[in-house]
Design brief:
- The chain has 315 residues and is α+β, with helices and mostly antiparallel strands.
- The chain folds into 2 domains: 2-256, BirA Bifunctional Protein, domain 2 (2-Layer Sandwich), CATH 3.30.930.10; 264-312, no CATH class.
- The protein contains 6 helices and 15 strands.
- The protein has helices at residues 8-14, 34-40, 70-79, 128-145, 224-243, 247-256, and strands spanning 2-5, 22-25, 45-50, 59-66, 88-95, 113-119, 154-157, 161-164, 167-179, 182-192, 208-209, 264-268, 278-287, 293-295, 306-309.
Amino acid sequence: MEIYTDSLPYIRTILPELCDWQMVNRNEITGSLKIPADRLFNTDLLYHASSENYENWEYLLAVESAPCSQYDIIGELCRENNPIPDRFICTAGYGKGFHGFKGRKWASLPGNIHITAYMTPNMELPSAGVGFTVLAVKSVVETIDSIPILFGRSSIKWVNDILIGKAKVSGALANIQSCGKLITGASIGIGLNIETTPLIGGDSFVPEAAALRDFVSDNNICSQAVLFGKLISIIYKNYRQYINGNYTELIGFYRSRSALIGQDIIVRSDTSDDKTTELARGKLLQIGDNLELFIDGRPEPLTSGRVILENWIDT
C-alpha cells in the first residue's frame, strides 16, 4: 500500500510501525490518484511511505484535518466520472461537515477513526443497493469483537448504527455506481469512536453516544494504533467474501447481531425536521435480504424510516 499524508504526527497515531517517510510534492502524484489527492489535500508538501502489511489496499491518503467530508468528496468524483483507484482508502484525524445517514451530523473528533474506502468490483452483485452497507457494518462489529472484553457486546440498530448497550459508537454509509447490471464502483464511509466521546444530546432514536474507551481502559488493546489496521483488513476480507458470492453469510451475520429482531419497535418517518409520523409499531420478526423490516401484523415489509426500541422510551 502506498501512503501519502500531510501530517506525520497523525499518521503515527494510526500506523505507528511505519518509519521510512520521504518528503514529496503533491504535483508528483500522477495517474488515477492525482485528482483524489488534489481534492483531499490542502497542502503541496506531503510525506510518502510504502507498507507491505496492507498489500490488499493500493493507496491510503491520510489528512489530519479535513475541511469537509471525505466521503462526499469521493461521491463528487464519482458523479463527475473522475478516475479513482481501485482499493483506495482516505482517512481524516478530524474535520468539519462529516455526517451520517441522510445527512445527520457526525462529530469527527481527534482520537477516532473516520475512513472512506473505494472499490471497483465491475461485476453483478446480489442486493447491491444495501450490500455494501451490510459489509461496512459487519466490518465494524468484527473490529470491535477483536477487543476481548467487548467480544459479542456490540449490536446493529437498523440500518447502519453500531451500539454497545444503548450507546452509539459507530455509523456507516455506502454508495454504489453501476453500468447496467454491473457494479462499477462502491464507496463506504465509517466513523468509529475509539478514544473520544462526542458530547451530543440524545433522542429517542439514539439515546446516547459513546467511544470504545468508555468500556475499555487499556490503550494497548483499544486505540487507533491497534484498531485502524484491523478495520481496513477486515473491510477487505468482507469485500472478498461479498464478491466471491457469499452475501448470505454477510446478511446472516447482520441479522445475528441485530439489536431489533424479536423486539417491539416503533418506526417513524425519516424527515429532517421534528414532524415525523408513525409508520408502524410491533415486534420485528425478521430483516430481509435487502434490509426490509418484517413487522408482526403488517402484511408488507418496511424499507424506510427510523426505528425506536419501545423499551428505550422513558428509560
